[in-house]
Specification:
By secondary structure, this protein is an alpha/beta fold. The chain is about 35% helix and about 25% strand. A hairpin with a 7-residue loop joins strand 9 and strand 10. The protein is globular, with a radius of gyration of 20 Å. The structure holds 1-O-phosphono-alpha-D-glucopyranose.
Length: about 300
């Protein structure tokens, strides 16, 4: 079988961001910054660092500022030049040159599976990656989460979902996989998957955490997929159905994952990413210590 490289990615970003209202009334949640970088920029950097060359962002009518962020801004560039701020100018230019980014609108909020279906003609007949904007993954000094998944895909040439073990109380928030055998190593073949199960119905504690590599046959299943959990067309259900005709694997990726779609997860990411910054680390550490003593 001819090997097909994973060079395209899809980033669904058409959600309403209701968990972050009022901040997301006029600003897409993907533009909320962790320290000073919008969350979507971390996601796009992970894709680029993983070898992705073309990215399709699924948007809705409220996401213009995301497109502006990844475009050139000549007025700002000129002003920065005139005031001698060359480093800042270079930095904003680099953002526009990160990758070939395309946009398509999801016209109705029918769920993640429906959002991915909007990418069908962009993807064509190639395997592709999906990265969810609520899941930011940091793997200090190691390979990006998506790169790990793409390497696992290269080994098996089959769809593969990125998972990590979550505690019992979190199982109902995720797509949960059913491995064919006990996990031994990082990769395992799957026999089923279920979206947001009750704990008593969950086949494992291995949750899908926002990273996928999928074969294009997924679109055949998405096209006919009936609404599932929450009345939405679920990607999880289509991947489960894909298992009827193809093998699907899970890969337990390395790295710390932050649920930045959740307020507490967002605060944790902000504090930890700030502690990684040379210009902030000492002051923030000292401040956190005083806070601990005060409360
Ligand atoms: C989505 C997916 C779910 C996955 C989760 C990861 O759910 O449907 O399978 O586990 O992302 O963050 P959402 O959080 O959008 O409800």
């Amino acid at each position: 079988m001819k090997k097909r490289a994973v060079k395209k990615a899809v980033i669904p970003a058409a959600g309403l961001g209701t968990r972050f209202l009022p901040a997301t009334k006029a600003i897409p949640k993907e533009m909320l910054p962790i320290v000073d970088i919008p969350t979507i920029q971390y996601i796009i950097k992970e894709a680029v660092d993983s070898g992705i060359e073309e990215i399709l962002v699924i948007t809705n009518s409220n996401k213009h500022c995301m497109e502006n962020h990844f475009d050139r801004n000549y007025e700002l560039e000129n002003r920065l030049m005139e005031s001698g701020k060359q480093a800042e100018r270079d930095m904003i230019c680099e953002i526009a040159d990160m990758a070939n980014i395309y946009y398509v609108r999801q016209k109705e909020p029918k769920g993640l599976g429906h959002a991915i279906l909007c990418a069908k003609s962009f993807i064509g007949e190639q395997p592709f990656a999906v990265l969810l904007g609520d899941d930011v993954v940091e793997n200090h000094g190691g390979k990006p989460a998506l790169k790990q998944l793409i390497e696992a895909y290269d080994a098996v040439q089959a769809s593969i979902v990125g998972v990590q073990t979550v505690p019992d109380e979190a199982v109902h928030k995720y797509g949960i996989v059913e491995p064919v055998r006990q996990m031994n190593g990082r990769r395992v073949k799957l026999s089923s998957m279920v979206e947001k199960p009750k704990l008593e119905d969950a086949p494992s504690n291995l949750a899908v955490l926002g990273r996928y590599v999928l074969t294009p046959e997924i679109f055949d299943y998405l096209e006919t997929q009936e609404p599932g959990a929450g009345g939405e067309i679920q990607l999880t259900d289509a991947i489960k159905n894909l298992m009827i005709s193809q093998s699907v694997y899970a890969y337990d990726f390395e790295g710390t994952r932050y649920d930045v779609g959740d307020k507490f997860g967002f605060i944790k990411a902000t504090v930890e990413y700030a502690l990684e910054r040379d210009e902030l680390k000492a002051d923030l550490q000292a401040y956190l210590k005083t806070l601990v003593e005060t409360f």
